[in-house]
Amino acid sequence: MPFRTSGLHHVTAIGGDPRRNADFYLRTLGLRLVKTTVNFDDPGTYHLYYGDESGRPGTLLTFFPWRDAPRGRVGTGQATTTSFSVPERSLGWWRRHLGEAGVESELVHRDGEDALNFRDPDGLTLALVAHPQGDPRDPWDTPAVPAEHAIRGLHSVTLSVSREDATAGMLTEGLGLSFEAEERNRFRFAAGEGGPGATVDVLVTPDAPRGLVAAGTVHHVAWRAPDEDTQSAWRDELLDRGVGVTSILDRQYFRSIYFREPGGTLLEIATDQPGFGIDEPLLELGRALKLPPWLEPDREQIEAALPALDLPAENNPVRT
To answer: Any idea where the VOC domain is (predicted)?
Structure first.
């Protein structure tokens, strides 16, 4: 396997009301809205990207928030938990903070790590994980969530499957991950040296129902490729292995290919470049609606269909 991902690029989920979605991820979780754009396949809805200051790969949770989306069903063939990395001694602070926001949470210990499990307003399962070795990534610092407690980026995702063997084969042979640990019906795989942002857990639940992707569930999980040449060669290798892979798609801020792992979860390989600074300055990320060139002629119609977002001033420090 010549191609190995260095870790998670982003996770994309389905949300409900976009204003409620932005309020929760900006004000309650303290992330930054680094890009406000639309679903390129359905420009009547937003595509909102939340992450660190510049939206570096490995920090991003993104949403397609449809106001009238039905509630999804969590089950096999899905990524069922998206976990963020926080400092080791911050879980107590986060439990109080979430409680003050009316969010119920549960402290758990798993795989040598303490975690706080909770759900967003649409029911998406999230976790904050305190990795014992720490996380050197710089956080986005806001008045609501100070830097000493702030989210550092993605920690891991959990894929739920009815059986693990074929999924494990795709992770190791298709993405270049390594098997790291097993705990009852949970199998951990890691990219590179592992740690926050480079981990996936495979949870085997043969009696669980098949998941239904809609509001409150993950749409796909994206893994990193360093550049387009690597991505293109990687695509050829997946095709040679008999995997059904899309053509390379232009997502403006990265290039993407998509395929399903055998357990049913939609995966993506996304390039690290060009990044979110190609069409607006760092201090203004997320402030204005950005459209790809082929949608610009329809800007007036698109903007009229989208509800206004109430962004906190600190999302764009130039305002303060």
So the answer is: 7-131, 153-272
